[in-house]
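Design job #97: recover the sequence.
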């Protein structure tokens, strides 16, 4: 039932403008009940949110610009907020799980973060784990923790050449390299 209210323009009072300029609609009461970040953003008029006249709706809405996220990720987050679940998790890619974790981190939606991390962990492989930890481990300690734990379990299957190749290109991630080496040694 609640899923039908996601992106419902007829009853919404909040509009998210996502990375490509598309818009997705939501309800301030549901958002503020689900996250302190939304409560602060919608109540205090932070720079990411402002009241605008939505010409397609012919009324004012709170606009929240979210250039870091796609329409699909924003919709999945809203579906989770409205229903408490994500449908068809087995169809998600590691990129989607990572982005769901990122958005849960930004908006302080712990339950979504837990689901995203659980699904992210299932998608780690000996072939992608080194790249994942180098690209995102320094930004998101919880993802780094999942990657290093996975490395410990599968270190015999990881190609050392993958590590050497990434170290050559990602020299700025010394603490991530240290985490990988510790996982391989333990």
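Job complete. Output follows.
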């Amino acid at each position: 039932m609640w899923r039908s209210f996601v992106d419902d323009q007829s009853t919404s009072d909040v509009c998210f403008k996502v990375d490509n300029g598309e818009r997705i609609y939501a309800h301030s009461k549901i958002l503020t009940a689900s996250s302190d970040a939304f409560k602060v953003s919608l109540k205090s008029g932070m720079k990411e949110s402002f009241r605008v006249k939505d010409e397609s709706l012919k009324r004012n809405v709170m606009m929240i610009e979210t250039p870091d996220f796609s329409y699909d990720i924003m919709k999945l987050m809203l579906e989770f907020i409205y229903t408490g679940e994500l449908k068809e998790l087995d169809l998600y890619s590691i990129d989607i799980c990572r982005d769901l974790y990122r958005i849960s981190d930004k908006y302080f939606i712990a339950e979504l973060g837990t689901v995203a991390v659980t699904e992210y962990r299932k998608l780690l492989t000996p072939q992608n784990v080194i790249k994942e930890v180098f690209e995102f481990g320094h930004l998101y300690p919880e993802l780094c923790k999942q990657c290093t734990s996975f490395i410990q379990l599968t270190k015999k299957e990881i190609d050392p050449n993958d590590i050497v190749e990434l170290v050559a290109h990602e020299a700025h991630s010394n603490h991530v390299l240290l985490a990988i080496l510790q996982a391989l040694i333990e």
